Amino acid sequence: MKMYLISDNIDTYTGMRLAGVEGVVIHERSELKDALEQAISDKEIGIILLTEKFGREFPEIIDEVRLHHKTPLIIEIPDRHGTGRKPDFITSYVNEAIGLKL
User: Fold this and answer.
1) In whole angstroms, what is the distance from residue 32 CA to residue 34 CA?
2) The domain that contains 9 carries what CATH number?
3) Which of 20, 65, 84, 93 is most deeply buried (CB count within 10 A of its CB)?
4) What is the pTM of this model?
């Protein structure tokens, strides 16, 4: 199983390539759709890494893929500018998912 990066900047792409993760740098909505379709069609890809910018700008595309495809797993990662998430993002996500306050 492989990971695949869809990035909006060359710095994140370069760092992930140094770690052995293949990927692509894109900037437009249509490019994102094409890159996701290509990654989904490759059965060796088990995890798609997306920079958070795509999650903020095109959430409907990401949500549609998550709803209609069991695999690959889509994970949003921060880029060189840091994360746009709150500091307690993981705790609030777990609280929301399981209904218990930690």
Assistant:
1) 5
2) 3.40.50.10580
3) 65
4) 0.75
